[in-house]
Write a structure and sequence with these properties.
With 699 residues, this protein is α/β, with parallel strands linked by helices. It has a domain at 1-252: Rossmann fold. 59% of the residues lie in helices and 7% in strands. It contains 30 helices and 9 strands. A 7-stranded mixed beta sheet has the order 1-3-4-2-5-6-8, sandwiched between helices. The chain has a two-stranded antiparallel sheet with strand order 7-9. Helix 14 (339-355) packs antiparallel against helix 21. The longest helix is centred in the last third of the chain and has 35 residues, at 482-516.
Length: 699
């Protein structure tokens, strides 16, 4: 197995150093600090799902640092753990940095002892990132006891790096076997096999490690004695704790806030309240003000200058003038004006993650998700879908159950990614005004509710899940710091600008050319002929008439949105001949515009359909790689049908609200829901096998 180079990685080969540790010990933070990288850091099991490598300077000598996914032991429970363990076993003569969290070192030492059993050359890096740590460790005494190098560091600030690098440059030296190993009767086990096996393999046989048993060609048998290994290993850790670790007595990650945040009745309402505050600040308060300022700045500088330059160079009515002003500057400027809101949304999500709150949300959701065939791991994937569906789908691979992985990956595109919220802000703002904050929040929740219902359907039919392990620790509530905030902001702004500067410009140019040239390549405003895009849009537009928006412009914008959802708004701006957000909103009410909506019900229907109808092309490609072409195709068809039916339902219900009032319609919907639930209950009771009282189900 080869390490995947991180961005900017030199192709030249350097001596490797493996970075190994439990999740949430500061492993990726150390990788970023040593290699000057910006890999994603989080409090989640599975944040790193692949092997990443990058060279770094080790006191004047180049070394290749390999960041492995977090593991708790050398026996895998998930995909990313197997990736890390396979890499360690494939590189037995490689120096290892085993990073432990000072606040949780007792548990982290189990992996350290496993690495020693393996015979690796281990440098134990005890990471202290808090001003007042819960533990105090005598590193020199622990080093003497274990027989391996021990150094205390601060991965965030760089403290202790000089000594760490000195230890990394020392010649390879296999770690001694832990003192308890001699009590495990390994020799007797090793003699039971015809082929020679080492102490590590013998220990894995005792533990019943499936990968090792398969490798040796045996099944679980009398050697299986996990409790024996666990007792000896953790007994030794208890001895180390008594002799070398002074504890404050506080429980790692425990907080009085959790009594409220994790309350079974309050957890979900609090989460909704937090999301509501984030959406208000992002879309209306700070975010809206910053967006307006940026729009005015772009119009006064780049927009005016480009328009005057094009008039002078090409003439006012030239198609080149309109191409630059409408497609490139107008279309891109429309989306670019949302840059502050994109940055704010990612910033708030990052703060929630770094603070440890999202870990609590995943824990609180585990019971609910377990009933629909998912696990707490799915929560992280779905929450990441609020940022970008493409990257979120990749995190689903850390699930050990294949069916759960397929379900989670297929459900991720239902989440409202950041590329969709310009659509909500522009169209929703034009028709719902200040109430749009509730519309936006409703759309985010709608995506989550639809995914839960679909997961339940899959669980009851073709994708039944097996039991899964879900290990999640609560980190202490903490603030990541100003540097971390600036890094997150810059990373997301940079990615947004790269996306706008490459994909969005090219797509806008293509859409503009299709909308302004006929099939015989004549310029439509001068020839008066039908454009290629209008011809194609008119073929599709009847499909959307039942949804309330049957214009060819709306249909064409949705087709373009399959490439990237941001293109929907830039396409509408081009079709309606405007260049900023406020002007788009005005044109959407005008029947003469190429894209318009006859009523708020039609606008809401378009928003719902935009949320659900199809994933973008990049997400489709990743889905195909992760779950296969068959399930990707099935998922796309199901998503389009769900999007269409949900938009149809939203359109007709909202029209009913407008015609009859809110409460009468809600009463009818409530009565219908009660009837349907009763029908399902009766059918379920009829299908239930009949049994006599007191028996366990005889025939």
């Amino acid at each position: 197995m080869k390490a995947k180079p991180a961005a900017g990685c030199d192709a030249q080969h350097f001596q490797e150093i493996l970075l190994v540790g439990n999740p949430n010990t500061g492993k990726t933070t150390l990788f970023n600090k040593l290699t000057s990288s910006n890999e994603h850091v989080g409090n989640w099991h599975g944040v790193t799902v692949d092997v990443k490598a990058k060279p770094f300077d080790c006191l004047g000598q180049k070394r290749m640092l390999v960041d492995l996914p977090g593991i708790y032991s050398l026996s895998a429970l998930s995909y990313e753990e197997q990736v890390a363990i396979d890499y360690i076993r494939a590189h037995p003569k490689t120096k290892i940095i085993n990073i432990c969290d000072l606040n949780n070192i007792q548990r982290n030492l189990a992996l350290t002892l496993g690495l020693m059993e393996f015979g690796a050359d281990v440098v134990l890096a005890v990471n202290c990132m808090d001003k007042k740590p819960l533990n105090n460790v005598d590193c020199k005494a622990l080093e003497k006891e274990l027989g391996i190098a021990v150094v205390q560091i601060n991965a965030e600030k760089g403290d202790g790096f000089e000594k760490l690098k000195q230890l990394l440059l020392q010649p390879y030296k296999s770690a001694p076997q832990p003192k308890y190993v001699k009590n495990l009767n390994l020799q007797q086990i090793k003699l039971s096999f015809k082929q020679k096996i080492d102490d590590f393999a013998a220990i894995k046989v005792i533990e019943g490690d499936e990968s090792v048993l398969k490798e040796l060609g045996i099944t679980k048998n009398d050697f299986l004695d996990i409790q024996k290994v666990a007792k000896t290993r953790f007994g030794y850790i208890a001895t180390l704790q008594q002799r070398f670790i002074k504890s404050s007595g506080k429980v790692y990650g425990k907080s009085v806030i959790d009594k409220v945040v994790l309350n079974r009745f309050l957890a979900f309402p609090i989460f909704l309240l937090v999301l509501g505050v984030i959406f208000y600040l992002t879309f209306f308060s700070i975010g809206a003000w910053l967006s307006d300022c940026l729009t005015k700045l772009l119009d006064a500088s780049v927009g005016n200058w480009t328009q005057m330059a094009c008039f002078n160079w090409f003439g006012e009515n030239s198609w080149l003038t309109h191409l630059f002003c409408d497609a490139i500057i107008g279309g891109v400027g429309t989306v670019l004006s949302f840059l502050p809101q994109v940055g704010l949304l990612f910033l708030f999500l990052s703060i929630l993650e770094d603070s440890g709150y999202l870990s609590r949300v995943a824990f609180a959701s585990e019971d609910i998700f377990g009933k629909i065939g998912l696990s707490g791991k799915s929560v992280y994937t779905l929450l990441m879908g609020f940022g970008c569906s493409t990257t979120a789908v990749l995190t689903a691979r850390n699930m050990e159950d294949k069916n759960s992985k397929i379900k989670t990956a297929l459900l991720t595109p239902y989440m409202s990614c950041s590329a969709k919220f310009p659509i909500y802000v522009v169209i929703g703002g034009a028709f719902f005004g200040a109430s749009n904050v509730f519309v936006i929040m409703g759309l985010y929740l709608l995506g989550l509710v639809v995914s839960i219902i679909l997961s339940l359907f899959f669980e009851k039919t073709v994708l039944k899940s097996k039991g899964q392990s879900f290990i999640l620790e609560f980190p202490p509530y903490r603030y990541g710091g100003i540097k971390r905030v600036i890094k997150v902001l810059w990373q997301n702004i940079k990615q947004f600008l790269i996306r706008v500067g490459s994909l969005l410009i090219s797509m806008n140019v293509i859409v503009w050319l299709l909308a302004n040239f006929s099939f015989d390549f004549s310029y439509v405003p001068q020839s008066g002929k039908t454009s290629m895009l209008e011809g194609f849009g008119k073929v599709l537009s009847p499909i959307f008439v039942p949804l309330g928006f049957g214009s060819w412009g709306a249909a064409s914008a949705l087709v373009a949105g399959v490439i990237a959802k941001e293109v929907i708004i830039s396409s509408i701006a081009m079709f309606n001949g405007v260049a900023n957000e406020s002007q788009i909103g005005q044109t959407l009410h005008d029947d003469a515009s190429m894209v318009h909506f006859a009523s708020p019900a039609a606008a809401l229907s378009f928003l719902v359909f935009s949320l659900l109808y199809l994933p973008c092309v990049s997400t489709m490609v990743v889905l195909s790689k992760e779950v296969g072409k068959k399930w990707t195709f099935i998922g796309i068809i199901i998503q389009f049908v769900i999007g269409y039916l949900t938009a149809l339902f939203a359109f007709n219900v909202f029209r009913a609200f407008e015609a009859f009032g809110v409460w009468p319609v809600l009463g009818v919907l409530f009565a219908f829901a009660v009837i349907m639930i009763s029908v399902f209950k009766v059918v379920g009771h009829i299908k239930k096998p009949k049994t006599c009282r007191g028996c366990n189900g005889c025939e």
